[in-house]
Write a structure and sequence with these properties.
single chain; ABC transporter involved in vitamin B12 uptake, BtuC; two-stranded antiparallel ribbon; 2 strands; 78% helix; disordered N terminus
């Protein structure tokens, strides 16, 4: 019964996100005649791919009742590592491998502090947010590395020949399909939801709670580093301040997608819909030359509403369910 109720809530929330997506398209078209043009839509999708990639592991982490605020800093650190290793004459493919390894180690460090020492993930990743970004500045300072080969940067800004489909979108689709299968079609997904709903009950049921959480933090670091590889290719520059503040966008997308901040609830389909809602709003406001401060205000408002909305809907649904049960009980007694 609880699972059916959760699924029903997810469907309603996803329907609401589709409505928001339509309204975003209407608003964007009203703000700029260029909003719905194929070229602009392709640019919008391309600009959201790093956020989309980081949102996938963030979804899984929040479902188990944790959070990772260090994703954007890990992206920046991976970008800097790529720049430094490339400048040192190391082949590009090995630069990417090293950057991914650094991201995985960063995620492992977060996971060990959370699972082995029992520290709150909010506090741990808030600290490593500053730590990893600080390391990036220590390594590269205010300099930038931008002499990457054209074959690499083309991946970040190029399209499939004959189309306006970014190459990076194919990467995201592949990763998203893997996450959908794992979360919604495998025993691992069922265990993740079980951990988010009741960690102690999951542990008594034989689920390796800490091991799964540790793996999720490693995955988060790895995919954040991959987002760093994509971001560096897209802007053709490795800098310590790359993706500064992106963690707010990632968390907004995930929570707006219907993932419960307390864990155990939500779907990846909702997160993907929310990704296009947030991306569309940012793009529309940018085309209308609306300042970054106002854009941040809109994103912050969405973040607050994404936390309040599902909880309010859940309470309303619970009240309606109790009212129906009370009505049935009254009818049975009078009958």
């Amino acid at each position: 019964m609880k699972l059916a109720s959760n699924l029903l809530s997810s469907w309603w929330w996803e329907a609401l996100l589709i409505v928001l997506l339509v309204l975003t398209a209407i608003l964007g078209n009203a703000l700029s005649p260029y909003f719905l043009t194929p070229f602009n839509l392709a640019l919008m999708v391309e600009s959201m791919m790093e956020i989309a990639i980081m949102a996938l592991p963030m979804t899984l982490i929040i479902i188990v009742g944790e959070i990772d605020l260090s994703v954007a800093s890990t992206l920046g650190l991976a970008s800097v590592i790529m720049g430094i290793t490339w400048s040192a004459g190391i082949p590009l493919w090995l630069d990417i491998v090293i950057a991914l390894a650094v991201g995985a180690v960063a995620g492992l460090f977060n996971g060990l502090l959370v699972t082995r020492l029992g520290l709150p993930s909010l506090v741990v990743t808030l600290g490593t947010l500053a730590l990893y970004r600080g390391l990036a500045y220590v390594i590269l300072g205010s300099q930038a590395v931008s002499n990457f080969p054209g074959s690499y940067t083309t991946f970040g800004i190029g399209y499939i020949p004959g189309t306006l489909i970014p190459w990076t979108l194919l990467l995201f689709i592949f990763l998203a399909l893997l996450c959908v299968v794992v979360l919604h079609r495998s025993w691992i997904g069922r265990q993740l939801y079980a951990i988010g709903n009741n960690k102690e009950a999951a542990r008594f049921a034989g689920i390796w709670v800490n091991r799964l959480k540790l793996l999720l933090f490693v995955l988060s670091g790895l995919l954040s580093a991959l987002a760093g590889v994509v971001f560096t290719a897209r802007i053709s520059s490795a800098r310590a301040d790359n993706a500064l503040g992106f963690e707010l966008l990632v968390i907004t997308v995930v929570l707006l997608g219907g993932i419960n901040i307390f864990g155990g609830r939500g779907t990846l389909i909702g997160v993907i819909l929310a990704l296009f809602v947030v991306g569309g709003l940012r793009n529309a406001l940018g085309l209308a030359n609306i300042s970054g401060d106002i854009q941040n205000t809109v994103i912050g408002t969405l973040l607050v509403l994404s936390v309040l909305g599902p909880n309010i809907a859940q309470r309303i649904q619970g009240a309606l369910s109790r009212r129906r049960l009370a009505a049935r009980s009254t009818q049975s007694k009078t009958g």
